[in-house]
Amino acid sequence: MTNTVLVVGATGVVGQACLRHFAALPGWRAVGVARRAIALPAGATALQLDLQDAAACQAALGARDDITHVVYAAVYEQPGGLVGGWRDQEQMRINLQMLRNVVEPLDRPGGALRHVTIMQGGKAYGVHIHPQIAVPARERWPRDPHENFYWLQEDFLRERQAKGQWHFTIMRPRIVFGDAAGSNMNPIPAIGVYAWLRHEQGLPLAYPGGPARVNQAIDADLIAQACAWAAQAPNARNETFNLENGDVFVWQNVWPTIADALGMPVGEPEPQSLATALADQQPAWERLVDKYQLAAPRDLTAFIGQGAAYADFQMNHGRAAPLPPVIMSSVKIRQAGFHACMDTEDMFRKWFGQLQQRRLLPTAAQARAALAA
């Protein structure tokens, strides 16, 4: 039997990786859903859809009898207020409604739906609110009492699933890294732009963040592999799993690896907000695109989304030391049967290499040649 997965939010950092992965799997058809145009990998198809439009979702999905699986990786973020929006009531309502608009047309008598995967993350443990969480965070803990659209979506799924013939899995990835352009929660393009703007000024790559903190990362392709596993694994049915690469990292310690991947020397730390530093750099970015004949969008925001603000949050901009570690246990998913892992330094090299290969950033060789000239 051929499975058909609907990857919702297919232009985001997680959705893009999932669409690419499922489209390459034997026995799977992959349909990417997004509001804007999707750059499709081989074997995938696209469905352009506004998830806030309930009537449009019903019309597009209500008559389909081929969708067996859903990977829901879409998220609505308030424009211009990424971190503050995480506690906004309207943002929570919209994110719940978007999920409802996808699941309700598919969850019907005689429908083909068998599994739904949704994304949560570290905010399930209140990492964006509490100065410290217990280490390591475990899936079996009672819910953190703060309001969160995660709980609204999870309660909706549990209620629907109890009456249906399908199952769900909840993934809680740690800090996600990938190659998606324009994503609100992917710091890779923003770091690359920051680096190259400094390069053009003849400056080394200075670490811009705040105090050190032991943290975890997750490669977007590993999330895609975990979603494919969960789609068919009995051990994943109606379960919640933390996800991370398998190691820990400190930004200051991986910064030399990032600089080397970009072909730049490391400078002394210069604490500053990336969101502020890149806010007025549109003309400089256009000059860089023209100079190196890049395939990246000339619109800087279209390339980095709110990734600079997200990088500020993850790099602890404006915070005072010492900062306790943020560690989530991944024992549960490993015991359930998913064992893939990745070295975090290798992950950074991989994603900056992908942007360079796609000519979204100049290459490390170009950086080194310019410095040697």
E-strand count: 9
The secondary-structure element order is EHEEHEHHEHEEHEHEHHHHHHHH
CA-atom Rg in angstroms: 20 Å
- Give the strand line-up of the largest sheet: 3-2-1-4-5-6-9
Separation of the first and last Cα atoms:
59 Å
Count of helical regions: 15
- Work out the helicity level: 40-55%
Content of β-strand: 5-15%
Main β-sheet, in a few words?
7 strands, parallel
Please mark out the parts with pLDDT under 50 across 5 or more consecutive residues, or reply none. none
Task: Look at the helices and sheets and give the structural class.
Answer: alpha/beta
What average pLDDT do the residues reach? 95
Basic shape? globular
